[in-house]
């Protein structure tokens, strides 16, 4: 795995790997280096007075980890989670956060030159939460900007 | 370089310990309980700090320590007798050492005027002692150092490390480096390392010989050598043409003694010190252990549950290994928690310095007496306690204790007394800070509170209620904010801090006689005795220490106020009823008997309130987990824990819940019942 900062400078020679997953019929991707593990859905403990997309917290080997519903985060309905749903555990800064998605799809190797910018005309929630778009054989994969998606949680931390 | 930084960190950690010990010994001396060994121990502490400071080139610290040490040495030799005045100077010197260590650590130049003052006090003592002993005895080398350069000569220093050498952070490379400052140095090393099966390798079998070509004055070299005397057998062979320094008569260096002979008394000394030896372990490692044990406790509980199910199904009894394991797990948890426990002394010992500083600044005479310093409390609690305690102490010094003339006029001893004590009370620790000052000035407090709009002039307040006003946010009685207690923070900050530690803070004051602050704190922030309750299918934990009693709602009299707020009748009056379901905004998912139980909770900010819950499940000890670590702080919730089945349960913060509930109701419920408008619900 090559360093990202130099990847941009050296253009297409540099590649990164992304884990792609499905929410509904849309594909999303997260830098594989950010993913700690992928686990099957288990019921969470709800937290009071949180936005609907925050599904609560779960016990990840003794650590309390919040779980966010990606579908609901993008304005969709709250996911009716079942055993087939998965939680992608990612690192955001110093924090460990779970993201509820429908299924994990693939591992993508993407050359940095193939990452297309997000058009500015996109809706507010999307443009702040995506870091780029990639075209693959199965369709477009939107790369998530995890900080942008869940930054509000961090900044309001007391 | 990072190697050096590590050593520095170690040095500062050690300094803190040494200086605490030093103040202890000096305290003993000033109480008149000290003996020769106490003086020696104090001397060694100063000497060790000096040695380390010199190795790192902290010249201010080394210079001062040298002066201090010289005076201590005089006490040791009996040339100076220990008087209360001398003790005061020595204690102040200890304070200055702390100041200097701080500035060495921060890399700043020490500027406190106290340093100069104490330095001159020290030299006064030297002169006084010098009239009986010889004036030339133990002079500061800087003063003595002759400007005339002597010719280069060869000096041989041998260093044979003792047991403590490496563990005390000494490094032969650094010594050599320091020696090269004197001039070109040759190093040879002799000796053999004992075979590994020859018992534990404590002392290193090697002896280094440093041959330095130098023109440095002998005293400089002696000083250099003396830094290592405690941890190594050091000999100095100096063919200096200078006349033998009479100082050495007082403390003869062990000149070329065969190692075995020299090792014997030193080893005895080392073993007597080894008794109190402790191991320094990074807190993060202990925390990992605490977490692991916490998980084992949970797994064990889950296993016990599963086995109980199997037993029931198969109608058989599995031998009580399970109980045995439960006991062992509990013991294990307790032992691990005990590692985190520290005597509260580490925070108490900072207080005498604050009192001395303030007594000077305020022109007050104050004696601080400490007791129960050995009381053990969790490390985290101790760290967090320093700030509120300091603040309370300042408050007592500033507002409580009167100036000497007023005290004498009131028929009290001119010297004020502040007592600080700690003791265990069940699962909590009780800290008591009392002074014999003037007590809370109720008239002024009330006037101020009215002026600030905290209370209305028509309110009829009980004296105790007036006292409690000093905890009100933004309240500060000092008309002029002094740099002593009024740094813009008031007692409310103290109270908040104590509360955030899961503690309570109360005050009792008697006008003219003094004020007592009582703080109770949980012994640890890592485990908590909790009451498990259920709302819908979710379980929540209430801190057991806050639970007063549990009542069946159907047996109680509940009234509804015009604004929809509910109150519950109890023997001593009405208390607010808070629905956990409403406060946390949980929809009712059709439980059979919702809100069947009312649990009376004693909150710090809201007095007694009753929480409506669906079921009371029972008591259990829970391991505290942070939600903030990976998320953020959530109103009404103070933390989380993991239950036997692996699910997360939230720990409720009842004071905050009461606040949340109030935000939800349109209007604040009135506490006095207005009977005509009441309708019965239950």
TrEMBL record, chain A:
InterPro entries: CheW, CheW-like_dom_sf, CheW-lke_dom. PROSITE patterns: CHEW. Transmembrane segments: none annotated. Residues 15-155 form the CheW-like domain. One of its GO terms (biological process) is chemotaxis. It comes from the Bacteria. Pfam families: CheW. GO terms for cellular component: cytosol. PANTHER family: CHEMOTAXIS PROTEIN CHEW, CHEMOTAXIS SENSOR HISTIDINE KINASE-RELATED. This is Purine-binding chemotaxis protein CheW.
From TrEMBL, chain B:
Involved in the transmission of sensory signals from the chemoreceptors to the flagellar motors. CheA is autophosphorylated; it can transfer its phosphate group to either CheB or CheY. Residues 261-270 have a biased composition (Low complexity). Residues 527-663 form the CheW-like domain. Residues 237-251 have a biased composition (Acidic residues). Residues 237-270 are annotated as: Disordered. Keywords: ATP-binding, Chemotaxis, Kinase, Nucleotide-binding, Phosphoprotein, Transferase, Two-component regulatory system. It holds the Pfam family HATPase_c. This is Chemotaxis protein CheA. InterPro entries: Bact_Chemotaxis_CheA (IPR051315), CheA-like_dim (IPR004105), CheA-like_homodim_sf (IPR037006), CheW-like_dom_sf (IPR036061), CheW-lke_dom (IPR002545), HATPase_C_sf (IPR036890), HATPase_dom (IPR003594), His_kinase_dom (IPR005467). Residues 1-104 form the HPt domain. The modification Phosphohistidine is found at residue 47. One of its GO terms (cellular component) is cytoplasm. One of its GO terms (biological process) is chemotaxis. The keyword Nucleotide-binding applies. PROSITE patterns: CHEW (PS50851), HIS_KIN (PS50109), HPT (PS50894). It comes from the Bacteria. Its EC number is 2.7.13.3. Residues 274-525 form the Histidine kinase domain. One of its GO terms (molecular function) is ATP binding.
């Amino acid at each position: 795995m090559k360093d990202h900062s130099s990847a941009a400078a050296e253009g297409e020679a540099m590649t990164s790997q992304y884990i792609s997953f499905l929410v509904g019929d849309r594909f999303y991707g997260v830098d594989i280096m950010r993913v700690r593990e992928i686990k099957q859905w288990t019921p969470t403990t709800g937290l009071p007075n949180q936005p609907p997309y925050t599904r609560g917290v779960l016990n990840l080997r003794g650590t309390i980890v919040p779980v966010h519903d990606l579908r609901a985060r993008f304005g969709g309905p709250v996911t009716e989670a079942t055993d087939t749903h998965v939680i992608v555990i990612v690192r955001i800064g110093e924090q460990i956060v779970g993201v509820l998605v429908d299924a994990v799809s693939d591992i993508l190797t993407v050359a940095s030159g193939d990452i297309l910018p997000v058009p500015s005309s996109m809706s507010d929630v999307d443009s702040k939460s995506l870091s780029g778009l990639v075209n693959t054989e199965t369709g477009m994969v939107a790369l998530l900007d995890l900080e942008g998606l869940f930054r509000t949680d961090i900044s309001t931390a007391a | 370089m990072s190697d050096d930084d590590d050593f520095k960190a170690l040095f500062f950690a050690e300094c803190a310990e040494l200086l605490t010990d030093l103040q202890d010994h000096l305290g003993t001396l000033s109480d008149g309980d000290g003996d020769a060994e106490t003086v020696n121990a104090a001397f060694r502490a100063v000497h060790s700090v000096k040695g380390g400071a010199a190795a790192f080139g902290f010249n201010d610290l080394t210079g001062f320590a040298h002066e201090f040490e010289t005076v201590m040495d005089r006490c040791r030799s009996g040339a100076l007798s220990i008087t209360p005045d001398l003790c005061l100077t020595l204690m102040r010197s200890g304070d200055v050492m702390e100041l200097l260590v701080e500035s060495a650590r921060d890399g700043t130049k020490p500027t406190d005027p106290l340093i100069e003052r104490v330095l001159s006090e020290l030299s006064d003592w030297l002169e006084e002692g010098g009239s009986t002993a010889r004036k030339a005895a133990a002079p500061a080398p800087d003063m003595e150092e002759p400007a005339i350069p002597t010719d280069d000569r060869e000096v041989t220093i041998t260093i044979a490390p003792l047991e403590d050498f490496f563990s005390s952070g000494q490094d032969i490379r650094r010594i050599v480096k320091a020696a090269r400052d004197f001039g070109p140095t040759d190093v040879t090393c002799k000796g053999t390392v004992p075979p590994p099966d020859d018992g534990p390798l404590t002392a290193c079998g090697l002896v280094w010989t440093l041959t330095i070509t130098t023109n440095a004055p002998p005293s400089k070299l002696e000083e250099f050598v003396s830094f290592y005397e405690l941890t190594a057998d050091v000999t100095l062979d100096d063919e200096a043409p200078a006349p033998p320094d009479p100082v050495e008569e007082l403390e003869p260096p062990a000149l070329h003694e065969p190692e075995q002979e020299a090792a014997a008394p030193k080893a005895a000394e080392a073993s007597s010190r080894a008794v109190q030896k402790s191991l320094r372990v990074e807190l993060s490692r202990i925390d990992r252990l605490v977490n692991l044990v916490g998980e084992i406790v949970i797994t064990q509980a889950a296993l016990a549950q599963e086995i109980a199910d199997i037993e029931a199904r198969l109608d058989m009894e599995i031998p009580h290994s399970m109980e045995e394991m439960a006991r062992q797990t509990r013991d294990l948890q307790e032992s691990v928690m005990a590692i985190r426990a520290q005597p509260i002394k580490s925070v108490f010992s900072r207080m005498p310095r604050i009192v001395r500083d303030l007594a000077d600044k305020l022109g007050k005479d104050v004696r601080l007496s400490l007791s129960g310093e050995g009381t053990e409390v969790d490390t985290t609690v101790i760290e967090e306690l320093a700030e509120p305690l300091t603040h309370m102490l300042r408050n007592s010094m500033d507002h409580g204790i009167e100036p000497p003339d007023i005290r004498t006029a009131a028929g009290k001893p001119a010297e004020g007394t502040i007592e600080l004590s700690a003791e265990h009370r069940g699962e909590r620790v009780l800290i008591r800070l009392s002074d014999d000052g003037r007590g809370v000035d109720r008239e002024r407090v009330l006037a101020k509170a009215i002026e600030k709009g905290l209370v209305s002039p028509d309110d009829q307040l009980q004296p105790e209620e007036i006292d409690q006003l000093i905890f009100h946010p933004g309240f500060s009685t000092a008309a002029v904010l002094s740099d002593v207690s009024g740094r813009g923070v008031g007692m409310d900050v103290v109270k908040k801090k104590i509360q955030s530690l899961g503690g309570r803070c109360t005050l009792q004051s008697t006008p003219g006689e003094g004020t007592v602050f009582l703080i109770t704190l949980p012994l640890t922030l890592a485990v908590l005795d909790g009451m498990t309750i259920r709302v819908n299918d979710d379980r929540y934990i209430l801190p057991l220490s806050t639970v007063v009693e549990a009542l069946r709602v159907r047996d109680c009299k509940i009234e509804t106020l015009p604004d929809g707020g509910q109150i519950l009748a109890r023997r001593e009056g009405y208390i607010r009823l808070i629905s956990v379901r409403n406060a946390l905004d949980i929809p009712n998912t059709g439980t059979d008997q919702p809100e069947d139980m009312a649990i009376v909770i004693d909150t710090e900010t809201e007095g007694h309130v009753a929480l409506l819950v669906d079921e009371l499940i029972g008591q259990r000890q829970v391991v505290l987990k942070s939600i903030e670590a990976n998320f953020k702080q959530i109103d009404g919730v103070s933390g989380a824990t993991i239950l036997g089945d692996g699910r997360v349960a939230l720990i409720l913060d009842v004071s905050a819940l009461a606040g949340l509930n109030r935000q939800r109701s349109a209007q604040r419920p009135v506490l006095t019942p207005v009977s005509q408008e009441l309708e019965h619900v239950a």
